[in-house]
Design goal:
Layout lengths: L3 H6 L1 H10 L6 H38 L2 H35 L20 E6 L12 H8 L2 E2 H8 L5 E2 L2 H19 L3 E3 L4 E2 L1 H7 L18 E2 L4 H6 L5 E2 L6 E10 L18 E11 L4 H19 L3 E5 L11 E9 L4 E10 L3 H6 L2 E3 L5 E3 L1 E9 H11 L7 E2 L13 E2 L2
Parallel strand pairs: 4-8, 7-13
Antiparallel strand pairs: 1-10, 2-3, 5-6, 8-9, 9-15, 10-11, 11-12, 12-15, 13-14, 16-17
Helix pairs in contact: 3-4
The protein binds one RNA strand of 90 nucleotides through helix 3 and helix 4.
RNA sequence: GGAGAGGUGGCAGAGUGGUCGAAUGCGCCGGUUUCGAAAACCGGUGUGCCUUUACGGGUACCGGGGGUUCGAAUCCCUCCCUCUCCGCCA
């Protein structure tokens, strides 16, 4: 959620920011609504003050009783009716404003390149050479089933299209990656959490999934709970409604969770094999930091994600997303894309963003400043990393002519020393 | 899932219709005292919003929501959470 006071003081910068995102908003209407809300609030509170005075005066009269008391009560009641009417107007106006605010995206940082869609994203860094093969490299959907480490048909049998199974060494390899990722994060100072995979709608609103993206979430039938689309949601909301100790910042959290996404509207596009599935594992990094250092911390966190790909020896690049491609709650985002030799393309395995105070304002996450006053924190999050696409890149990159796959040395300790996956 | 007991400020804990944003203690901050510290004493110490150049004023918040009343921490309804016991169970 944006800062209404900031909108009041420089409406033009917001007008431009939303325009740059391709999500123009009627700023004048917003400001008019805001003015209306404040007028009604002043009137309602003024009446309430009068009513409180009148009620207070009744106390001493109450014992005596009689006509004076009845008269005073009647006057207070009339005042109360008037107050209730104005307050109802205020409430309606406030709700109307809040409903609009919840759908307004976070303005991007000034450095974010202007652009309409993914084609306008800027390549910020590249790492690794394109792998050479003296044979035609296969895509993972051919390689993995042949090795007996993935079974797509049986995933579909269990839960429908978009669900997969990992088998044998495939399942173990995924678990090895999770463990290695987490261990790397712990070494970088992160605290690991295990969190609920189901959360309340209020929590989803805190990080920005609701109300705008309700159609992307899985919901439970008999309970008002939703499956998390990313560990960002529970991790960021851990401190919802809290005032943190300044000395504790920055807080660096990580967690491994499955992620559940309906992917409504994404059917058919790049969905083969493991590329886009409704349920996948991911290790997520979340930071709580200050306005002063959040941008620099984003670089650090992004570095942590990149280090994982380097450790695995996987060719990758970093994109700075343009204004039109940056997600709703984010102010600046770097995507990490890994090279998939089997499909001759890039796959997004991480998205590292600063949310400035946008999520903190929604979720009520503050820190006590040096002046003793609470102020909003800045939140960051980034994947570190998403598992399925790492698996894809890994087996495609390290495939051999005979169809076997060599395991990167860093993972071998997690696989009982296994060096190669053979059929 | 059933029965019971509870949810009050950073913590502990009073308060059962009015003068209660809330006693008291602890903690914390400042001051006096001291060579310094401790102790003692004095003062201060929640959050959001509206309004104001400022000082200030107003309003809301005693788990959440709703209701009764001129007036609710206090009464009623409802939901959530915690604890104890029972049941069930990884």
């Amino acid at each position: 959620m944006i800062d209404l006071a900031a909108l009041r003081s420089h409406p033009d910068s917001f007008r431009k920011a939303w325009g740059d995102r391709g999500a123009p908003a009627d700023v004048d209407a917003l400001l008019a609504q805001d003015t209306l809300v404040r007028e009604l609030k002043t009137r309602a509170e003024g009446l309430k003050a009068e009513l409180n005075q009148a009620s207070k005066a009744i106390g001493p009269l109450a014992k005596a009783g009689g006509a004076a008391l009845d008269e005073a009560k009647a006057r207070a009641r009339a005042l109360g009716d008037q107050q209730k009417a104005v307050d109802a107007e205020r409430e309606a106006a406030e709700k109307a404003l809040a409903d609009q605010l919840l759908y307004l995206p976070n303005p991007c940082l000034a450095e974010v390149p202007l652009g309409k869609d993914a084609a306008d994203n800027r390549v910020a860094a590249e790492w690794g050479e394109e792998p050479r093969f003296d044979f035609a490299p296969k895509p993972h959907w051919d390689l993995a089933p042949a090795l007996g480490i993935m079974d797509f048909e049986r995933g579909a049998k269990l839960a429908g299209s978009g669900f997969v199974t990992l088998r044998g060494v495939g399942a173990r390899l995924s678990r090895a990656l999770v463990s290695w990722f987490l261990d790397q994060h712990l070494a970088s100072g992160y605290t690991e959490w295990a969190v609920p995979y189901l959360v309340t709608p209020q929590i989803m609103q805190g990080t920005g999934q609701l109300p705008k993206f309700a159609d992307q979430l899985y919901a439970c039938k008999d309970d008002p709970l939703l499956l998390v689309p990313t560990a960002e949601v529970p991790l960021t909301n851990l401190h919802a409604g809290e005032i943190l100790d300044a000395a504790s910042l920055p807080l660096q959290y990580c967690a491994h969770t499955p992620c559940f996404r309906r992917e409504a509207g994404a059917a058919g596009v790049g969905t083969r094999g493991l590329t886009r599935v409704h349920q996948f594992d991911k290790v997520e990094m979340v930071w709580f930091t200050t306005a002063e250092r959040s941008r620099a911390d984003l670089e650090t966190m992004r570095g942590h994600a990149e280090a994982l790909l380097r450790g695995l020896g996987l060719r990758h690049r970093v994109l700075q997303l343009c204004t039109g491609d940056t997600g709703f709650s984010a102010a600046c985002t770097f995507d990490l894309e890994v090279w998939s030799p089997g499909t001759n393309g890039w796959l997004e395995v991480s998205s590292c963003s600063t949310f400035t105070d946008f999520q903190a304002r929604r979720a009520g996450i503050r820190v006590r400043g040096t002046d003793g006053k609470p102020q909003l924190v800045h939140t960051l999050n980034g994947s570190g990393l998403a598992l399925p696409r790492c698996l894809i890149a890994l087996i495609e990159t390290y495939q051999q002519a005979d169809g076997s796959v060599v395991i990167p040395p860093v993972l071998r300790p997690y696989l009982g020393g296994l060096e190669r996956i053979v059929r």
